Amino acid sequence: MIHPTAVVDPRAEIDPSAEIGPYVLVEGPVRVGARCRILGHAVLTGSVAMGEDNEVHYGAVIGHVPQDVAFPGGESGVRIGRGNVFREHVTVHRGTKPGTDTVIGDRNFFFAGSHAAHNCRVGDDVVVANNSLLAGYVEVGDRSFVSGNCVVHQFVRIGRLAMLRGGTRVSRDVQPFCIVDGTHTVRALNVVGLRRAGMPADEIRALRRAFHALFVRPRNLKIALAEVEQATSSPAVRELVEFVRSSRRGVCFGPRATSPDERGEDGGDE
């Protein structure tokens, strides 16, 4: 299953069921799990550990040195779970400090031209669409959707089931369950995404109330968080409150050209 034109380092560990396509370069102590498909001209380099059933498409580069002027060299790596898809010319760079990793979970889909920089941590079932860029140390929660041409500043956290609309640029944390666009501007609750994820209707109603209390009415956020937390028993709302409280960069609010959609009726358009 290794094409004769591929170049495979003798230190690499390739599962016998994996497919290595034409002109692939596998360089260094790379580990490729069962039933993975590494298509033509892809590059796996350095300390890359890849689980089962991943697809790496034409021209993708995984494990190369980080784009960090302070990179000291040394051993660092990329850790990838199972069932991920990396389309054409995706780049995933390894950790920038010795002994650290960039970590990709399970069943994520990186569209063509997207980028995950050093030390990113991407959860499960995440979509990163075409040409979107995750800077160093970005964290992306499960089932988030990063639409095309988004740019995410280093150290930003994207919460679970959040959605960034196309062309969004954020340097603040993106709160879970919400839709953000423009320049870190929160617009609505991601109602469509929540329903698709199977969230119960009562939880969605509780999140609607919390969204309105926290992000629509202009008021002291610390007081609003305390009131929302005291008034609910919803696990999802408590997750939202804890995320906002733990933010070091601040969460998305504005600037706002228009008010956020209080109802979230159009939330989740993709």
Please explain how this structure is put together.
The chain has 270 residues and is of the alpha/beta class. It has helices at 191-196, 201-216, 221-231, 235-246; strands spanning 7-8, 13-14, 19-20, 25-27, 31-32, 37-38, 43-45, 47-50, 55-56, 61-64, 77-80, 85-86, 91-93, 101-104, 109-110, 115-116, 121-122, 127-128, 133-134, 139-140, 145-146, 151-152, 157-158, 163-164, 169-170, 178-181, 185-189. The protein is built from 4 helices and 27 strands. A 10-stranded mixed beta sheet has the order 3-6-9-12-15-18-21-24-26-27. Strands 1-4-7-10-13-16-19-22-25 form a 9-stranded parallel beta sheet, with no helix packed on it. Strands 2-5-8-11-14-17-20-23 form an 8-stranded parallel beta sheet, with no helix packed on it. Helix 2 runs antiparallel to helix 3 (221-231) and helix 3 packs antiparallel against helix 4 (235-246). The radius of gyration is 20 Å and the shape is elongated. Mean pLDDT is 93; it is low at 262-270.
